[in-house]
Design a protein that fits this description.
Blueprint: H1 6-9, E1 28-35, E2 43-49, H2 51-56, E3 67-77, E4 85-100, E5 106-114, E6 119-120, H3 124-136
Antiparallel strand pairs: 1-2, 2-3, 3-4, 4-5, 5-6
Length: 143
């Protein structure tokens, strides 16, 4: 019997590229989503957070020390399960880090990374709306 290759059992296409500032997929999941209207094939996202962010997920208020990351992939067909869709090629990683601002109140910083190897993309026009979107995402119900 032929031994399966890594590509046969792992979704190697969905690996995140080198150069990302955080290992977001090692954090705990807060929520996930699918957008079938984004790009030609649709996208899949997963919002993850460090332990502080997960503790406050869904509250709408994140204290200093919270880190969130939204990973986005193009969707693709699952070769092992008819009709299923799985993450394909990495699209982006968006991060929000909450720190204490100069006035001592929590302040959030937003960053976006794309490409392989990943590089930061500066987008001042959309940064505030994306930061607000990530901070406002509703946490999935967790048992």
């Amino acid at each position: 019997m032929k031994k399966p290759q890594e590509a046969d059992v792992l979704n190697v296409e969905a690996r995140t590229p080198s150069g990302l500032p955080v290992a977001a997929l090692e954090w705990r999941m807060i929520t996930s989503g699918i957008d079938r209207h984004d790009r030609e094939h649709g996208t899949m996202t997963m919002l993850t957070g460090n332990d502080v962010a997960v503790k406050y997920a869904g509250s709408g208020i994140y204290p200093a020390g919270s880190e969130l990351a939204l990973t986005t992939w193009l969707e693709r067909d699952d070769p092992h399960w008819f009709g299923a869709r799985i993450p394909g090629t990495f699209v982006s990683l968006e991060t929000v880090e909450v720190k204490n601002g100069p006035d001592g109140k929590p302040a959030a910083e937003y960053h976006r990374y794309e490409g392989n190897p990943a590089h930061e993309v500066k987008d001042a026009t959309n940064a505030n709306s994306r930061k607000t979107y990530l901070l406002g995402m509703t946490a999935s119900e967790m048992p």
